[in-house]
Amino acid sequence: EAGVTQFPSHSVIEKGQTVTLRCDPISGHDNLYWYRRVMGKEIKFLLHFVKESKQDESGMPNNRFLAERTGGTYSTLKVQPAELEDSGVYFCASSQDGGVGEKLFFGSGTQLSVL
Amino acid sequence: RKEVEQDPGPFNVPEGATVAFNCTYSNSASQSFFWYRQDCRKEPKLLMSVYSSGNEDGRFTAQLNRASQYISLLIRDSKLSDSATYLCVVNDGSSYKLIFGSGTRLLVRP
Question: What is the nearest CA distance from A87 to chain B, expressed in angstroms?
Answer without folding.
Answer: 15
